[in-house]
Amino acid sequence: MLNTNDFSNNVPFLDLVTPHLELERELVGVFRRVLHTADFIGGPMVEEFEKAYAAFCRTSHSIAVSSGTDALRFAIMACGVQAGDVVLTVPHTFIATTEAISQAGALPEFVDIDEHTYNMSVEMLQQFLERQCSRDKLGRLISLRSGRPITAVVPVHLYGQMADMDSILRLASQYGLTVIEDACQAHGAEYFSKKFNRWMKAGTMGSAAAFSFYPGKNLGACGEAGAVTTNDAVMADKIRMLRNHGQAKKYYHDVEGYNGRLDAIQCGILHAKLSHLAAWNAQRRDRAADYSRLLASNKAITLPFEPSWSRAVYHLFVIRTNDRDGMIGHLKKAGIGTGIHYPIPLHLQKAYASLNYSVGDFPVAERASAEIISLPMFPQLTTQQQARVIEEVLAFASKAPPKQKDDEEDLLKAVSVTPRNTILS
Amino acid sequence: MSIFIQQMAYRDAGYATGRFPIAESMANRLLSLPMGPKLEDAGVTSAIVTLKAAAHG
Questions:
Q1: Which domains are delineated in chain A?
Q2: Quick one: closest CA in B to A257, which residue?
Q3: Which of A106, A126, A188, A354 is most buried, taking the most CB atoms under 10 A from its CB?
Q4: Which residues from chain A sit within 8 angstroms of residue B9, using beta carbons?
Q5: What is the pLDDT of residues A210-221, one digit of tens each?
Q6: CA dihedral A37, A41, A42, A43 (to 10 degrees)
Q7: CA of B54 vs chain A CAs: smallest distance (Å)
């Protein structure tokens, strides 16, 4: 990742400097305001941002917390998942999703993703619930894999596009599961719900949703930050308690909580940036449309798929090609930054060896992880920069005809030879 | 006179009021006075005067 202003011909994967320089006065003003009141923790700046973010998401509550990981952990804990329960999610996501599940005391289990959207496959979820679960004497849904009760599902709105929420919610309600959205990459993404006959925003459909404001996100802080959104007042109160050492009142600890508050400076910064988010998302959608239009002719490249029920906000623009590593090498030589989100699916990470999954368990996620490339995508990406990216992608894709590789073997190799610190980074 | 309220977070730990009499007594009797590098003499004096009045009153 290049975080610098780059005046050369190079195209950074992400330019974080330009948007901050554009807002310099506003952001410094935030710091000055906090400096003059010394309301560093809690206070009006936090509450004002929470109100504004809830209004943006169209939820009744938003609770600012220290990171997206904490947001998801608190949401899972507050929705009633008990220690030892199973929480279902996808293997094709950042590890924070499963860290939050484990740290809430639950056990992650996976269902495969959809080939086209890279989000949770509804078919796979249904198959899992029908074939890999049973009911115990108490009528609880039990995972045959672990013998533990399944109580929640965490669909991830990956790359800025929502999962098929109507279908996931229908299955969840049929099986008595709570749905918590991992919306850490989907600020402002929308989904057309046939059930409600309207467009609905990420963060409004599950019992609660986790957002991350990590600096590179569509809405990013100048540091670590996150939030939970929910329409459930009881859940909101529980999360407020969890983030603040379990206190309902100062020094009265109803439960053991966490140090998970978001400080006033970050809230002020996020509030200032929030007024630009809709415009930034629109710019991302424009860039994505341009990429898709200009890369469409090449058969060696698979473009992102946006179903008619989705309005994605393109946190990442992810294409797919057989010779992925070749293309990344070519783009690197041409001075173009890229990323892989993510190269090793979670069920094959060393951290989850104890879950006893193996290569081949989630073929769609495994194939995707071997073929995906994230191209430069940020609101300030210029037409010239984008033209350069497209030119180089096409140059490589047309000169090197796609060769078929044995993905499974590659993945095995990658997993077995990648040093531990690389896997964890 | 003194009220000891158990933390709800640890209600399952099996402790009862009276188990830690010194800590319980302190929790009911301690107070922290204004303190900081920028606390001025006038502030200290005012705190002392108020405290003395309260102690004798």
A1: 18-272 (3.40.640.10), 277-424 (3.90.1150.10)
A2: B9
A3: A106
A4: 246, 253-256
A5: 999 999 999 999
A6: 0
A7: 25
Token pair 């973010």 in the structure block, residue: A53
A252 touches chain B (CB under 8 A): yes
Three-state secondary-structure class, residue A181: strand
pLDDT tier, B56 (very low <50, low <70, confident <90, very high otherwise): confident
Cα(A16)–Cα(A385) distance, rounded to whole angstroms? 15
- How do the domains of chain B map onto residue ranges? 8-56
ipTM computed for the complex:
0.85
Residue-wise pLDDT for A9-37, tens only, equals 899 999 999 999 999 999 999 999 999 99
Q: What is the pTM of this model?
A: 0.92
Minimal-distance CA residue of chain B relative to A245: B9
Question: Could you tell me the two tokens for A393?
Answer: 């992608």
At A60-87, the pLDDT tens digits run: 999 999 999 999 999 999 999 999 999 9
A391 in contact with chain B, both atoms CB, cutoff 8 A: no
Nearest to A275 by CA among A15, A53, A30, A51: A53
A11 near A336, Cβ under 8 Å? yes
